[in-house]
Model the fold of this input.
Amino acid sequence: MVEVKGELMTIGQVAARAGVATSALRFYEERGLIASERAGTSGHRRYHRSVLRRIAFITFAQHVGLTLAEIGGELARLPANRTPTRRDWSALTTTWRARIDERIAEMERLRDSLDDCIGCGCLSLDRCAIANPGDRVADAGPGPVRWKP
Ligand code: FES
Done:
C-alpha cells in the first residue's frame, strides 16, 4: 500500500499508485499532459492527488489508440486551475464514446478473423486461396486489407 501524507504526492508515490514508471510521468509532464509543483528548497516534483485520474485517462486513452497529441487535446478541455469535477470529465465523453466504439468494432473484427485470411499477403492459410488468390487484395493498399476499418 502506498502511504500518502497530505494532498501532495512525490513522483515515486504517484508512480506506485498509478502503476506507471517515473520516467513516463516525467515524459507526460514534458508533453504538458500533467503538471507538478516544485517543493520548497529541494525543488522536487510534488503532484496533487487528482493527477492520478489524469494518468489513468492517459493510460486508457493510449490503449484505445489515441495519440499523445490527441490525449493532450482532450485534457486541455479540462480546467487547469482546479481539480476537474465529474461534470468536467463528462464533457469529454462524446469523443470518447466514438473512439471506444471504434475500438470495440476493431477488436470484434480481430476476434472474428483470427483463424481466417486477413489479406496480409502471406498466402499461408488454405483460406487465402479462396479469400485472396494470388494476393489480389494488395491492389487495395498495404497491410492486412481485410482487417482494416
Ligand atoms: S492470411 Fe495473409 S493473405 Fe491470407
Q: What stands out?
A: The CA atoms of residues 117 and 128 lie 5 Å apart. The chain has a mean pLDDT of 87.
